[in-house]
Specification:
- The protein has 110 residues and is of the alpha+beta class.
- The protein is built from 2 helices and 5 strands.
- It has one domain (4-109).
- The protein has a 5-stranded antiparallel beta sheet with strand order 1-2-3-4-5.
- The protein is elongated, with a radius of gyration of 17 Å.
Length: 110
């Protein structure tokens, strides 16, 4: 049986996870104000503005040239705080680390 870590590692390496096209449906939701796409050196940047609880927030989705999601940043318009909520490379590094720790733990038991 393939471990969940290996499946997640495979997904992070090979899957787009979310594409720019997937985000189009969000603009139909009542809490979304706008959706803007632009090109940059990495690929496509998508900016979304939406209402969340008591705040209006902007999400910035960065995609590579193959439309694979690289990073998502959240900006609170009330506080001005920005936070990276997803980074593909960090997620991949964490999953590889978990896999190695799990593998070493199994090896130490045997």
């Amino acid at each position: 049986m393939i471990s969940s870590n290996i499946l997640r590692i495979h997904e992070l390496i090979n899957s787009p996870l979310v594409t720019p096209y997937n985000l189009l449906d969000n603009i139909k939701l009542d809490n979304y104000n706008y959706l803007v796409y632009s090109k940059n050196t990495q690929g496509i940047l998508c900016e979304l503005e939406c209402k969340m609880s008591d705040d209006v927030c902007k999400f910035f989705y960065q995609f590579d040239q193959k439309d694979h999601l690289i990073q998502v940043t959240l900006e609170s318009l009330s506080s001005g705080n920005k936070k990276v909520v997803f980074n593909r490379q960090h997620e991949l590094d964490n999953e590889i680390k978990k896999y190695k720790e799990q593998k070493n733990g199994i090896s130490n038991v045997i």
